[in-house]
Structure formats: structure tokens, C-alpha cells
Amino acid sequence: MTTAAEQSPTYDCRADFADELAALARSDERIVAVCNDSVGSSNLVRFREEFPTRLINVGIAEQDLVGVSAGLANAGFIPFVSAAAPFLTGRALEQIKADVAYTHRHVILCGQSPGMAYGELGPTHHSIEDLSWMRAVPGLEIIVPADPAETRSALRWAVASGKPTYIRIPRFKVPAVTPAGAPFEAGRATRIVDGTDVTVIAVGTMVSRALGAAALLERQGISARVLNMTFVEPLDREAVLAAARETSGIVTAEEGLLSGGLGAAVARVVTERHLVPVRMLGVPSFAPTGSTSFLLEHFGLTAEGIAEAAREILDRAR
Amino acid sequence: MTTAAEQSPTYDCRADFADELAALARSDERIVAVCNDSVGSSNLVRFREEFPTRLINVGIAEQDLVGVSAGLANAGFIPFVSAAAPFLTGRALEQIKADVAYTHRHVILCGQSPGMAYGELGPTHHSIEDLSWMRAVPGLEIIVPADPAETRSALRWAVASGKPTYIRIPRFKVPAVTPAGAPFEAGRATRIVDGTDVTVIAVGTMVSRALGAAALLERQGISARVLNMTFVEPLDREAVLAAARETSGIVTAEEGLLSGGLGAAVARVVTERHLVPVRMLGVPSFAPTGSTSFLLEHFGLTAEGIAEAAREILDRAR
Amino acid sequence: MTAALESAAPLRPDESAADTYGQRSARLRAASPAEAAAELAEISTSVRRDILTTIQSAGMGHVGGDLSVTDLLVTALWGTLRLDPTTPDTPQRDRFVLSKGHCAAALYSTLASCGFFPRARLSEFMAPLSPLNGHPARLKVPGVETNTGPLGHGFPVATGCALGAQLRGETWRTIVVLGDGEMQEGSNWEAAMTAAHYKLANLTAVVDRNRLQQGARTEDTKTLEPLAEKWASFGWEVRVIDGHDHRAIKEAYAASTTGRPVAVIANTVKGKGVSFMEDRVEWHHKVPTDEQVRLALEELNR
Amino acid sequence: MTAALESAAPLRPDESAADTYGQRSARLRAASPAEAAAELAEISTSVRRDILTTIQSAGMGHVGGDLSVTDLLVTALWGTLRLDPTTPDTPQRDRFVLSKGHCAAALYSTLASCGFFPRARLSEFMAPLSPLNGHPARLKVPGVETNTGPLGHGFPVATGCALGAQLRGETWRTIVVLGDGEMQEGSNWEAAMTAAHYKLANLTAVVDRNRLQQGARTEDTKTLEPLAEKWASFGWEVRVIDGHDHRAIKEAYAASTTGRPVAVIANTVKGKGVSFMEDRVEWHHKVPTDEQVRLALEELNR
Ligand SMILES: Cc1ncc(C[n+]2csc(CCOP(=O)(O)OP(=O)(O)O)c2C)c(N)n1
Ligand SMILES: Cc1ncc(C[n+]2csc(CCOP(=O)(O)OP(=O)(O)O)c2C)c(N)n1
Ligand SMILES: [Mg+2]
Ligand SMILES: [Mg+2]
């Protein structure tokens, strides 16, 4: 069964990343891009054409990538650090902790090809751990854009905020899900669909699938609220609380490990503030080989999978 | 107000680590120790004396430390990797993920001076993130011993299990808390105090403080159950579930960040299986300068702090 | 987090291919480099053919680095190391580690040629649930010593293997192959220093010096030269060779003469053997069309 | 995770000390190395005294490395770099980074001597909620450019500072001081390669070559020699000096003559200036008794 969101055109947000980065760089000379031999895979070809001196390639050296970027911030630049998410977050973790977050430098970390975007390349190239790892770095803002508009907003926000920020840049194609005129604010989720029975809180690639789930559930007479939790940090605790109070249960959906990402953030609010059943959807462990679509299906990270989890939650709540 | 546990003698478990490691090495030639210029701080002086050729010092190079250890495992050794917890987990995270967990090598990672044991040395030397980071490495067992007996058991278990394991080696002095004859099994918490009103689930340095809290609460007519969740992974889900069913709320206490460690693991079980209020105690962000005791006090990680959280939970539950 | 690893069943040896390999490789190991060269070259050509068809069936892969590393791989596995595909975990085996794990197709094609698993399985490269993942995973593929893919991992692990043999006083040896771009990873210099300190004469590190990395020439990205001096200053015995000359490779793989670990800087051509791919950065991971594969195979047949 | 950082208020400049520093350091910067040496030595002695009493009051610290690095620090901050303690964040300032952050007491004592904060505050070293944390934290201590403590961080960051100046076409320069043991961290070799590739002639990396690390001699732990060759092979201009000779240090801090970044290998003595601490590994972080501090101060007074 196809849903409205699934029929919509889909977009590779890397184009929006490249475009918005260039636009920002045009009006702000402090912006530079820093990469690890990833000019192509980090979508910086266009940036290099327009700003050849403002693209810094440190080669295949992720610790240096982040350290040098912190130094560039010290020198007054605003570095967009662009590298494959698993290497950026896994290989340079202590640099992210010490040089960026703890030193409090305005460095914008762009995790490219996050989640299971590099499906067939396997667990070393999957970045299912990044949200858990980055949530456990104090002082880091975490943004998971869900579509082209949010990708652009995330970049603009990160420049304006002055804060150390991690952004997951989407690669797997997604439909546009952001309602026209929706504000983009730290700590503020977007309620894309209102609903009264159950709430689905999703990020990134899972948002359109959550919308698909809501459509499926509607046909079954279930009213599902869909929240796009763009900022995993700071989390919109009020939106979670409202969902806990106003609906009978929450399903969280993320293209990442279940241990410490969105699901854990939501569960903390729920258990500390207002109890309601939660069902977490995500990736349980190292994933097998396969395309991103195959893997998402494999782990039930589909409209159907989310709808099923929502029904289970409602059964439990009753 | 002092409690029984606080009056007990306290132990620096590094002595037990050193002693047990030597004992194990005596009967198993496969055991080697690997360190990063940390012979002293990793408590390997004695090991070196007895087994000079079986102590490998790779110098100040944590990525190499873990990679070389994975290679030693490939060659048939059982390496105990001993390094300060923040550097071991933060600097070598991708090696832990790829070379140890994903390659599935029997490497035993010993995080020395964990939590805020290096109080005055500041956030770069605190390891409040390790439980969150390690929980988000699939296939890694995580043990947080609470006293000398558990420190020894953890080492023995890690050798026998054949599994990639992370052990937090206690440095901050703790009283003995393990009941005589208590089994040491993966996925099995120890119920040190039985209770019916509220449950405190603690790990490591927090266990004796949880016992202190139970004593305080008892004087106020509140019956608190105390669980020592030695294995953060695999978690004793049944013990959590029983606590959720049989008591009115759960307090979790850990010397670590609140984002993704013990608290998150417990909250997942609670929100998915049986709802009950949870209050998480831990460290909210980078800690200031100060001794370990000072910092634990600063963050309310004391018997009084735990008791207060338990009372709050009971108020909410009522 | 405790959980099962991936789900597909691991590959098993191909007994008959392994048998052929056992005899032929014993002969090639014993032969002088000059004697063995032609036969090793022949095997390399057939491995190159398999690489191309493997990437063709997957529709993905890193063909440029696969073709530059082939002769280094074949000479290691067929002409130098003592391996038994039917008992891939035997403690006394020599160890081979491909640190530049993105060249999995080259490793798989070579392992299959030795009989570590049936050659026919190469067509499953990167298929859903396939054991032949885009980067080598040891629990799935016999002959893989450690999982690689992120650059800068295989070398420290290989150092640990060699150190292990030294500690045990055993004679098996370890060969690790690195990309040249990969040498920009600091973890490798940590390992280089460790291996030299422990005088791991049983370790050979081979740099596939094709002068290209993912996005550009190495010297335009981050200068590696003078690379031989770097290795020498880190305490290694250095041998600079033509990485497509099987005789030179086999000679370079000979034991250390100095008691120090040996670094082989193998000058190679990325895309070697396929004229339109040679020394062109875009073939790092561009996928040939069917027509291009046909042309490439034709060139290799000549 | 969003949250406030630590709680204690940041330190503020000591205006009057800063004023004295402004004049005196301008003179020392302009003076020839030979002329400046005696005065720099005098300042170093008083900084050494502060280091000892600072560690004494804290009951913790890394005295050996503090004393080996003092002359390098003082010559950088008093005799070479353009700094203004009253406006420590002015964009045009030169940058000083102490990569071996465990020697915070030496950095703090030197910064206090310049007036970045009142010298009296040194007694708060590592006290509860003190801004003078065991490792330097920039939001608390003016003059600290980046938070260090884990080894191998300051050098890449300093490389970024220097690259930033180069990109802006600005003339300010960056000096970073590393421990010799610290050179075992691969992240440093990544930075060394980056700085050479970008020809960061505005960057000086100083190695405090005291030949000891935490647990033993560097050469017994993991061989660093031939260290000068390592730096040279990584593309640096190398200057080997006596790291306690202020004239030699000031000369070595002079601008690059080759267009390449400059590595200063400063041969030093760990525990320098206190006979019973000199070149003894246990003084890496042993804390002197009150009597030992008295003896040490007496020696320094001579
Ligand atoms: C840690 C890490 N960073 C980045 C990458 C992405 N990547 C894959 S291959 C490659 C280029 C490798 O160049 P080189 O080592 O020269 O290999 P070859 O030329 O033989 O293909 C890069 C940057 C990676 N796999 N791992
Ligand atoms: C990443 C990391 N690993 C380990 C340590 C622990 N440590 C602190 S000081 C030190 C020795 C440093 O030796 P060296 O660089 O020679 O400094 P110095 O002799 O000048 O004190 C070590 C290993 C650390 N601070 N950071
Ligand atoms: Mg290459
Ligand atoms: Mg030293």
C-alpha cells in the first residue's frame, strides 16, 4: 500500500547542503569548509569551484580534521567540517569532546551519508552510533534534518547560533515534509500531523515514513500525531510531554542504534515527567550488507513497521 | 548523618585488579597486558615484575593500543588493555568498534580511573561519557564493578566469556557491598537490599551510596530495594521489570552522564514493558574542578541525594 | 550492547580449488622470484578479470585501487605466505591484512582464487545479506584476519599479530598492505613507531603507492613525499620497487635483513591493466559500464 | 547535550602586572637573543618558584615537565610573541598553545607573570570550583587558546590557528609546545603533515625533549629517535637547541627561513633547576613535601 508521502518526489539533500553552504559563504567571509579527502563525497565540489581558497582538505586524517577546524575557529573562521559521519564521529570523538565542545568553539560538524546511507559498505561505514555518541558529548547541539528545507535551515541556524553543532546531512532520498512557514528553532519539534490516539516521534529519513504510518493508521481509524524532532539536542521536552499527556503512547523512529539516541532522549522525559508507553524503532546491532532501502525494510523502519508499532502501543495502553 | 556503609572500611580496587590479573596470568599463558605509558596509573607495576615479557607498552598512542591488542588476540593472546578510561574510550572509539566489537575479538578493555576519579584534572580526564559511548558499540559487554570482589569477578568473567568486554576499574575508594556467595553472571543484577516501596538501581561507586540511601529511607519508614546492576550490558531486564512491577518507582544512580548510560538502559525497559516513574541521577554536563568526593557531593550523588530522589519518586507515584 | 552480528551464513572453503592452490603455491613459494614471476603474473591477470566482473555484478566497488593492488596481493597470497584455505584459522598460518579495506573486491577475488571460498560466490558481492560485504568482515569470509574499511586500522592490528608471533617465539609472519593516501592517518604512524620499537622483523608493510587517493593526487591533497625517508626515520628497512613487477615484489617480500620491520614502497598505477582507467582519479570508485568491462577484459586477454 | 559549562567565574587580567609586562616584553622582544637572555632567565626562575608553590598548595601537579618547559614558555610569552593580557582575545594576537596540557602549573605561572590574571590566584590551583583546573580551560583562564590535557590535541589546533592566519594573509604567528612522549600520538603526525603541506611558515612547534615520559625514558618506552630526521622527513625546518639556554631558544623562535614550518627540538632536563628532581622519572607527577619545596626554592635562589 503506497501512501501520499511515498508517492511524492524525493530529494537528495546533498544538493541543498551544497547550495546553502555556498549561499552562506557568499555573505559571510568567515565560513570555510574542511574535509578529509572527501571533496566529492562531502559534496564540496561546487564550494571549491566558487571558493577555492576556502576549502581546506586535510587528507585522510579525521583527528586532524577536527583539531584543525577548532584552530580555524580560534582564528575567527566558522568551519563546516564535512566528512562521512562514521569517521567524523567515531575517529575524532575525543577531538569533538575536547577541542570543540569543551573548548566551546563554533565548529559545525556535518556528518555525511549518515545512518545506513552507505548500506552495502557495511557496519564500518554505517553511522548508526552517531546520535548516541554525540548526545553523550556535553554542549553539542544535534540536528537531524528530514528534508531539503530543513537541511538548509539547519545550516543557517548553525551559523547564526554560534554553537558547536552536529548536523546529520541526509543522503538517502526523502520527500519534502516541512510544512510551509514552519519555524526552525532549537528545542522545537514540528507537529506535522495532529493526532489524539498515538504519537510518532521521528527524525531524518524516518519522518516521511512516520507520515506514511499516520496515513495507514488513519484508514484504520487511528489518529496518529507525527512530530519531527529535528533537534535531538536540545530536545523539545514540552512536545514530548504534550504527546505523553494527550495521546496514549509514543513510537520513536530513527535510523540509528536503539541504545542512546532519540528513543533514549524521549524515554527520559517520559519516565521522569509523565508516564506513557514508548516503543522504540531503530537498528538493534551491526547491520548486514544491503542497500539502504533494503536495510530499512529489514529492520522494520517503514511506514508499515511504524504503524504496526503504533498499534502495539495502543494495545498496551488499553 | 552517617550510614552503616559509610562507616565501613573502604578499598581502592586497583589492588584487586592487579592481584587478580596476576593470578589469572599465572594460570593462563594467553593473558597479556597492554598499556599506553600507563604502567603505574594502570596498576601494572606488579604484573610487569612477574611477567616482564607479557606487559606491552605501546607508548602514548591509544588507537594503536587497541589495534595492536586486537592483533594480539588474533595471534591467540587474551589482552587486557589498561588505560585511563577517557582516553581508551574516547580516543580509540573507532578501533573499539571496528577492530574489537565488529571483528569480534576477545579483547578486555579496562577503563582505569573512570567517572570522576581524576576529579581535579577536569573534564578531559573525567570519563563520564564512557557508559553512553560503550553502550552504543554493538556486541560489547559492559561491566561496572562496585567493590573488590566484583572487580575480581569481572576480570575472571571476562576471561572465561570469550567476549569483547569493557570493564570500569574502580579507583575511588568503596566499601565492600557484595553479599557473600552472590553469583556473578552476565545479565544478572544483585538485589543487595530487598524493599517494596521504591527501587534504587546503581552501579560502581553509587552502590554503597544507594545502600546508605536505603538505610536513611528505612529510618523514615520507606522500604527501598537496592539493585547493583553490575552488567550495564547485557542488562538484567527481568530485575528492572520486577522493580517496576513490585515497587512504585525507580531511581538510577551512576557516576556518569545522564544521556545514554544506566539510566537510559533502565528507562527503555520501563517505557517498553511496565511503566513506573524513574528518576535518573548522574552528571548533567562537563564537571567543574574538584576532588572526586567534592564532585559527587556537588551533583547530589550521595546517600542523601539518592534518598531525596527516592522520596520525590514516591511523591510522584502517589 | 549485546546482540548477534550479521545474519548471513559465513562462506566455506572450496576444497578442490584449495587443493590446487596448496600444490601450486608451495611450488611458487619455493621458486626463485625470477622463476615464479610469469606464473604469478598469469594468476594476477585472472584475478583482475574476476575483480572486473565482481564489480560489474555488484554495480559498485573501488576498481582503481583493486587493480593497483592486485599484483601485491597475488604475490603475497600465492607466492610468499604459508596459508591453508581449508584451515583458515590454524594458529601457525602467516597473516595477511588488507588495511585499505575498500579494495575488498581485489581481496575477495584473490581469496577465491586460492580456494578460501568458491569463486562463483563472487557474484554476490554486496548483495543483500551477502557475506561478501563492501568491506572485509572476518566472521563471514575465511582468510580475512580483521575487519577493515575505515583507513588506518589494519596496520596497527597487523602490528599486534607480528608482536604476538614474536612474543610466542613463532616463525609465522605478517604482511599488511596499505594505501598511500591511507598513510595520512596518524594511527599508521603510531603503528610504524611501535613495530620499529619492538623490532618486528617478522612484519612487512607494503604501501600501494599509486599516487592517487579518493579525490586527487596524494601530493596535491597532502604531501607524502619523501615517503621512503619517513619510513626510514621511523626505524624501518625500506625497499622501493615497481609494484607490478612480480619478481621485484617477491624479492621485496623476503625476510628482513636488518632485524627491523620492512616497508615496501610499491610504485603502482591505479587502474593498472585497463588503459582507460590507468592513473585516473575518477576510477577510484567509478563503476564501469558493461561495454567498458568488455573492453577491459579484452585488454587483459591480450 | 546542551548545558552550561563549569560554574566558577573566569579569571580577569591583572591590569598593573599586564602594564609592566607590556613594556618589559616589548623591550625583550626587540632585544637580540644575547641581550634578552639574562632577563628571560631571571623571569624563568621566578616562574619556577611559582610553579613549586602552586603545586605545593594544590598538593598535586606535574612538576617534572613544568620545570623542563619553563624556559620554553617564558621565552615564548615574554620574549617572542605579541600578546596583550588586557585584551586576550584580540584577533591580531599571536597564539601560544601548550599541547602538553598536564603542565598547566607552568602555563598558569607564566600567564600570571604576564598579568593575564592575578598571581595570587595561583594558590587556587585545582581547588574546588577553581578556574585553575588541573588542565587549561580557555573559558576560565585568559591566555589559554584551547583546552588541552589529552595529549596530541594542541598541535592540530595550533595548526588550524596558523592556517587561519595564512588564509587571512595576516602576520600573527603561532607557537605550540609539545611533550616528547606526546610525539607518540598519531594525531601529531597528522598535524605535522598538514602544516608542511600548507607550508605554514608562521607555525613553530617546540618539542620539550626531556627524554622522559610518564613511566620511563622515551627511548625505553617507544623509540622517538632519530627525532630530527622524523620532523625533517615530514617537511619541517628543524632546529635542535639547548632548551634551557634562553638565547638559543629565542634564536630558534625566529621566523622560518625556508618557508616551511619550524620544529624546535629543545633538549631539556625534566625537573630542571631542582637537583633532586632532575632527570628522574618519578618526578613526573610526584608531589614535593614542604621540606622538599623549601630545599628546591633555596636551590633556585642561588
Ligand atoms: C577513516 C577513513 N576516512 C575516509 C575514508 C574514505 N575513503 C575510502 S578510500 C579513500 C581513499 C584512499 O586512498 P588510498 O589509501 O591511496 O587508496 P587507493 O588509492 O589504493 O584506493 C578514502 C578517503 C575511509 N574509508 N576511512
Ligand atoms: C591521550 C593521553 N594519553 C595519556 C595521557 C596520560 N599522560 C599524562 S602526561 C603523560 C606523559 C607525557 O610525557 P611527555 O609528553 O614527555 O611530557 P613531559 O615529559 O614533558 O611531562 C601521559 C602519558 C594523557 N594525558 N593523554
Ligand atoms: Mg592511493
Ligand atoms: Mg617528556
TrEMBL record, chains A, B:
Name the domain of life.
Bacteria
GO MF entries? magnesium ion binding
The alphabetized UniProt keywords are: Thiamine pyrophosphate
Gene3D superfamilies noted in UniProt: 3.40.50.920, 3.40.50.970
SMART domains reported in the protein's UniProt record: Transket_pyr
Output the Pfam families linked to this UniProt entry: Transket_pyr (PF02779), Transketolase_C (PF02780)
* InterPro entries per UniProt: PDH/Transketolase, THDP-binding, Transketo_C/PFOR_II, Transketolase-like_Pyr-bd, Transketolase_C
Q: Where is the Transketolase-like pyrimidine-binding domain?
A: 11-176
Q: Which cofactor(s) does the record list?
A: thiamine diphosphate
To which protein family does this belong?
A: Belongs to the transketolase family.
- In Swiss-Prot or TrEMBL terms, this protein is called Transketolase
